[in-house]
Amino acid sequence: MAHAVISCLHANLAAVEAVLDDIDRQGIDTISCLGDLVGYGPQPNEVVDLIRHRQIATCQGCWDEDIIDGLNACECSYPSQLAERRGHLAHHWTADRITEENRSFLASLPMSFRKDQLLFVHGSPNSQHEYLLPDMNAFAALERVDTAGAETLFCGHTHQPYVRELTGGSIQVKVQRNNKEEFEEQEQRLPVRRIVNAGSVGEPRHGNTKATYVIHDDQSGVVTIREVEYDVAKTCQAILDVGLPEVFAWRLSHGFEYAERAEDASHVCER
Predict the structure, then answer these.
(1) What is the CA radius of gyration of the chain?
(2) What is the fold of 2-254?
(3) CA separation for the pair 180, 188 (Å, rounded)
């Protein structure tokens, strides 16, 4: 049996509808969502309403948390003060428009959920704000999965889809026994673990504009990354129509993050 995993919808209704249609056409009934239903995009209530209507199992993303707890919940970093100001603007715009019913729904979402040996989180098991990048130190990546008691960890947050197999790891320890000069060597083989990043439905940053999600075969364990075309221009125009920063539409139309070079390019957000 196959099930779909989606993440980072970011209030982009056209993209969400296209991905759900693609899932439905394949006859997949089970969908898991890794959060960030809102933020950056122009249709926060419409996207949350759709996820609620479809009764899709969802964990809370960092943007969902920020709308509930305010900007002080954020542990992110921005490439510049300009980028941070845009993030502030998008936060306030979304917070002013989200309905109380949808706000309560976002507040009710769990930090994670499990399905047998599969763990579903937004950022990492430690935090919604931690990025598990594909080139993260292998031992650190393995630690995130193994200490959470999972075999496969599904995450989002980076907006870059990937499947990473963590194999061949070991820990070697030298232990001195009974005050002797000799040391006893011990080696512990680490189990095979896997991280699957679903990428982003609503704001792809992997080099093209197609929405991404993954399909997991629960019997074979095979993971397939899918890309779905949608009406990008429609969402870009909606971003401009509601008065969100123009650069949100620009980067959506190019499929990657935009970090302008500024006098404070090394700026780190501190909230």
Answers:
(1) 20
(2) Purple Acid Phosphatase; chain A, domain 2 (3.60.21)
(3) 23
Single out the residue of 198, 139, 175 nearest to residue 19, CA to CA. 198
Can you give the pLDDT at residue 140? 87
Beta-sheet pairing, 30-33 with 2-6: parallel
Question: Which pair of tokens denotes residue 25?
Answer: 């056409």
Q: Specify the pLDDT at position 82.
A: 78
Extents of the domains making up the chain: 2-254
- pLDDT score recorded for residue 70: 81
Mean pLDDT (the chain) is 88
Distances (CA, A) of 196 to 36, 134, 199, 233, 246: 17, 10, 9, 29, 32
Intra-chain end-to-end CA distance of the chain, in Å: 44
- Helix residue ranges per DSSP H, the chain: 13-25, 44-54, 62-69, 81-97, 100-108, 138-146, 232-242, 246-254
185: helix, strand or coil = strand
